[in-house]
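quick one
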Amino acid sequence: MTSADTATAARVPLTPDDVPGWFWKADQEIFTWLLDRQKAAGTTGDLMELGAYLGRSAILLGRHLQPGETFTVCDLFDSEAPDDENSAEMAMSYRKTLTRQAFETNYLAFHNELPTVIQAPTSVLADGRVAADSCRFVHIDASHLYEHVAGDILVARDVLAKDGIVALDDYRSEHTPGVAAAVWEAVFLLGLKPICLSPEKFYGTWGDEEAAKRELMKRDWLAEGFRMDEEIIAGHTCYRLAWDGPQPTGKTAASSPAPAQRSAARRLALDVLPPIATRAARRAMRAARARGAARG
Ligand SMILES: C[S@@+](CC[C@H](N)C(=O)[O-])C[C@H]1O[C@@H](n2cnc3c(N)ncnc32)[C@H](O)[C@@H]1O
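structure w/ S-adenosylmethionine:
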């Protein structure tokens, strides 16, 4: 983190993109789409974020709060971590800039009221203080160590209502193999079903993932500046979405997201074709893949 970021953390931000953090354009759009879709369907329920840092993603989540709903944020902020590994993680990544007061200042620059703040390790949430089946959306972005994330996923499974969505940060980064382990363990052993993947986040549900994917396919993501690809993982079809345009400007704390991988020829073909043609191209690729699999 640079001294410029430290200065930004202390100043009142003018836009959410002025808030340092790791919440990029693709995920801003996917969060918005998922939360708007819930609203359009008349779905109500609380929102929860584990790991808020200086509020960059919390500010967007707070914008989707509907009357009568609660938004709970759990973060250590400037308090002690519960174990040495977590302490080291905090010292390396967040300690220089992070205070609860800075989070609150940033959040209140965009909202009249603070969310319910639990300043504690996310492990305290296992005590049932957030009611079971009460949430429609949970963002897990606190410790990136396996034991912590695995616990956070169990909390999300308990508090999410039917068809609720969980977003899991850093499920595939070089420096976060523990998150990858916890996420795919939840898919294979705990019944978590993937809906879509961005370069930074995994989106899934313990509810009706097919309905979510059907809706997702209705939106023309390519026309809106995304790259999109289909992935079948152990029988789960899900969609990879990556933002293809510039990141919003503003002071951010992290390096640029890694580019999604795709062969240049295939990407060019999909990007230059109109949306209907790209869907047909994807169907053709799927069929070719299935034929290849059948041939062994
Ligand atoms: C990657 S940052 C969150 C980024 C934020 N969601 C954003 O988009 O800008 C991780 C946050 O998790 C918090 N954290 C780390 N370990 C934690 C733990 N065991 N319990 C609660 N919060 C923790 C850190 O204090 C930090 O604010």
